[in-house]
Amino acid sequence: MANNCLEMNGEEYKLAVQLLGRSPRMPFSVKTRCPDGSPQVLIADPVFLEDGIWKPFPAFIWLVCPRLKLLVSDLEQAGYVRKYSQQLEEDADFRERFLRSQAQISGIRLELARAIFPGELPEHIKEILLETTVAGSRDFRGVKCLHSHLAHELAYGGNPIGAEVIRIVGHCEKAHACGSIKTGGSRI
Ligand SMILES: [Zn+2]
To answer: How far is the CA of 177 from the centre of ligand 1 (A)?
Structure first.
């Protein structure tokens, strides 16, 4: 079940890279799409070979929908990273659900890496894939990046921060034509 971007057709690969804003160092695939059919969330290989060395890549879920990226950046600007970090401190139920979602993502990440890596995963790679959040942080009380949590929620569900974010910004609709929104362009 290894990702293989070569299986994507050329146009789709080009659009995904354009939405991402860079050429990724590792293979990836499209996990979810906006209603206009354009890539919304990409899943990158959580372990990849570079210069002959296998490297772990824990922040493997990428939000690429330009509409959601803009709206989530607005929330970050408005202080929502701190708001949710505080909620993790103060609300035991929220924290419990968040930690469960991070355990879920560790499991998915490890399973994907095992399918990609030839042979037994080295301990140092396994450790990083098991002991980081979906945002690639070792701080399980930290939120770091709302984009990662929303991408996690859209791709697999179960992330209470991502669920809050999508409740606020709203799901994409066909009329948003997400894939045609120019990055850095005017707001919708
Ligand atoms: Zn969208």
So the answer is: 7
